[in-house]
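<tokenise_the_fold>
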Amino acid sequence: IERSIMDAFYRGGYHDLFRIISDAVSKQPQLPETYLYYFDVARFADVFGYDRAAGVLSAALSTLRAGGDFQGRNSLALALTVQLDRVLRLGRSPDASRTTAFLRPLRRWKIAGPYHRYGRGDIDHQFLPELSHDFEKAGVKSRTVTLRGGDGALDCRRYLYPSQGVAYALTSISLPHPVKVRVYADTEYALFINGRKVLANLRGGTYRSCRVVRVWGVSTATLMIKMLRGDSWRCRVIVTDEHDIPISAETPSIALTAGDFQHVEEMDYPYGEYVARSVTDPEKGFSLLGSYFDELDSDESIQYYRLAAKSGDPLSSYFYGSALIAYSGSDRGS
């Protein structure tokens, strides 16, 4: 199947390409290699129709759920549902509300800002909200918003003016057991839990469109996201249990907490499968890892495409060159 997909891509036969990808995704969604084509189905929706793309992703979910349990099944189902939700919303389908309800994005936030002083350097500067244990006592002006309808993404452009600098978004979640906090964003940000910075999603450092942090060891946690206004100023946060099933985690009220906790950042399945493949079949494994990070909009893909291209395969060289151009801001002279 993969060779047929690459042959169609190489020829520019996009009707054949979509047909082959659709068959692979709908009939064999459990394969680690097929995961990378979930995103292609969603991208092709603009060309071949939202209903058709949604049908492929829905069929893949049905196939996945009908099959036996295996490591990574819930993670794959979540990835499929996120792409299905995207396609349904682009096609303005009434079914989108059902997929979004399954994902259970966090919808109640306390927001503060904007704060702007140093341009892009604002993301590194400590403004008052991240120095405070109590917004009200510290004089931090904030407002509480509840996101009704839509995909559950918080877009600070709707609430803050002027639209520049950084915004702080705060919410509280309960942790009756270990959970995974998933932040989907196409902007730079820092994530704080109980006042402690646990990751920075920055271009020039580590940047991915989805970051996953497992958190445990505390009953309640305060999440604070410090977002830098770029082309976007929005994020969507989904909390899952440790088995990658979305859960309702919002607390009745939003309050700053400072309890100690444990955390670790994780990579979603099938990242581990690709790493193992890179040991037994380096060219294929590195190519898969390159595509994996490419789907996360991460320039980490470049190092893996470079390793795959050492084989001299024209398609590997093409993906390597495309990534170099894309992550240099289309500066071909960089």
In short: The first strand starts at residue 108 and ends at 115.
